[in-house]
Amino acid sequence: MWKQLEQQTDVLAVSVVTSGWRRRPLCRPRNSMAKMADVHTRDLLGWLATLSLICGTLAMPVDVDPECSGGTSAKYSLVFTGKWSQTAFPKQYPMYRPPAQWSHIIGVTHSSDYHIWQRNEFASNGVREFSEKGEAWTLMREVQAAGERIQSVYGVFSAPAVIGGTGQTSSEFELFTRHSFLSFIIRIVPSPDWFVGVDSLNLCEAGHWKENITLDLFPCDAGTDSGFTFSSPNFETVPQEKVTEITSSFPRHPANSFYYPRLKHLPPIARVTLTKVKSNHIFSLPLESTQSNQIPIGNEIGDSLINTPLDCEVSAWSPWGLCWGTCGEPGVRHRTRYIHLHPANNGAACPALEEDKTCDPDNCV
Fold first, then answer.
1. Are residues 325 and 286 both part of a single domain?
2. Count of C-beta atoms within a 10 Å radius of residue 125
3. Count of CB atoms within 10 A of residue 48's CB?
4. DSSP 206
5. Three-class SS of residue 97?
6. CATH number of the domain that residue 338 is part of
7. What's this model's pTM, rounded to 2 decimal places?
């Protein structure tokens, strides 16, 4: 079975899991497939297509959530907008090796008894590998296992990476009445183990499919790496900590790349917009990063960028130096400090870096 499924690279699958013992995979043949610019992306999307087919062909009796009465299924478009700019997040903003950017999106549609990740819970090995390295294979196997074990996963989807801190990427996905929840995860690149995403968003409200939803996204820490900055070397967290939201004051350490003590709240680092599509025909998994998926920055993004003030940060004073001067006259001691972080966006200017005080000259006879 696996060998046969792995050979189906020309079939794009969307699975439908119905109640009880019924099941029916929905597949659409594709006459030709464009060559992928990146081999890893092609392998991942092939796995996603295979996984969607597997999730739809399982035949296990399950406990189901109440149905959404607004139709048996609904199709949505997802637009992810990166708002990670140097003006909104000036502290240690990554400019090179690598510059600020976003990974591809891994999304899952599922029932209420499944979570790809959760705040205040431990991240799985799959989430660890994805948030630290951008590797999705273990995460995909975990999704597959959940579908096989409790039939909670309806489908999976992806969207191309955003090559820049600001920009957009998009995808489409389908929900079913008993699988009306959406979860997804996107890695912040570069970072120790930071990501943004949505956990178990129910798109069926009061028995009807929601039409439009816009959510601001904020950075999360997977709790698996103890690095404080975007470019920190690997530093495993032992023991592992739970997933937490990063704020302007947590972690409370001046070295943290998101530490802005003057701010009550961080500005959103990203935004996602979900729109219900009228047509419910079967859709294709995104195959490659095209211009339609990588939308250039326009007024919608640029006009909403925030200027976050960044105050100057300086070191502690050095010890006072020796007292220099002529015997019988007042001498002078000198001490210095240096700049840790230059101000930006009208932040507080740097204080004096040198200081003198009078003293009695040393070793005067």
1. no
2. 12
3. 23
4. T
5. coil
6. 2.20.100.10
7. 0.71
Question: Which of residues 302, 334, 350 is at a domain's end?
Answer: 302
**Token pair belonging to 307:** 């200027």
Range of the domain at 344: 313-359
| Cis peptide leading into residue 98 (ω within 30°) | yes
Instruction: Record the tokens describing residue 136, joined without a space.
Output: 């999705």
Q: What is the pLDDT along the chain (365 residues), one digit of tens a residue?
A: 333 333 333 323 333 332 222 233 322 333 333 333 343 444 555 555 545 444 443 333 344 455 676 678 899 999 999 999 999 999 999 999 899 999 999 999 999 999 999 999 999 999 999 999 999 999 999 999 888 877 889 899 999 999 999 999 999 999 988 899 999 999 999 999 999 999 999 999 888 999 999 999 999 999 999 999 999 999 999 999 999 999 999 998 888 999 998 889 999 999 999 999 986 454 444 333 333 333 333 334 444 557 788 888 888 999 999 888 888 888 899 999 998 888 888 788 899 999 999 988 877 75
Q: For 212-226, give the DSSP string.
A: EEEEEE--EE-SSB-
* Domains: count for the chain: 2
Check: CB of residue 90 under 8 Å from CB of residue 310: yes
User: Is 26 in contact with 16 (CB distance < 8 Å)?
Assistant: yes
The closest of 327, 337, 335 to 356, measured between CA atoms, is 335
Locus of tokens 């947590």? 250
CA distance 199 to 212: 17
